[in-house]
Amino acid sequence: xxxxxxxxEGASVETVADELHLSVQTVRRYKVIVSQGGLExxxxxxxxxxxxxxxxxxxxxxxxxxxxxxxxxxxxxxAWTNARLRELIERRYxxxxxxxxxxxxxxxxxxxxxxxxxxx
Length: 120
What we know:
The protein is mainly alpha-helical. It has two domains: about 1-45; about 55-115. Helix content is about 60%, strand content about 5%. The longest helix has 21 residues, at about 25-45. The chain is globular, with a radius of gyration of 15 Å. The two termini are about 30 Å apart.
């Protein structure tokens, strides 16, 4: 939804992709969807797979955790990484998600930019 809002505000596809750590191709697809049906159409777009086991309360808790230091949750530094968020979700909620899905959760919360990029 953040990508859709940024596109409606007039941000370029490349800017939105860079800000939200999304591929340019994905943001282009979002732009078409938003231009044809607005944010509602983007919200209806599924990402495939099964429904998340995390409810709104859990997502709100994750958002709050991400907005604070990772150290508060037992990590050695304040920085958030995808791996740390995956571990925290598994510890708290007992579900293990893929790296891609955890990135999607953070991005859907408008907080993907808080995850440090991997140094592969």
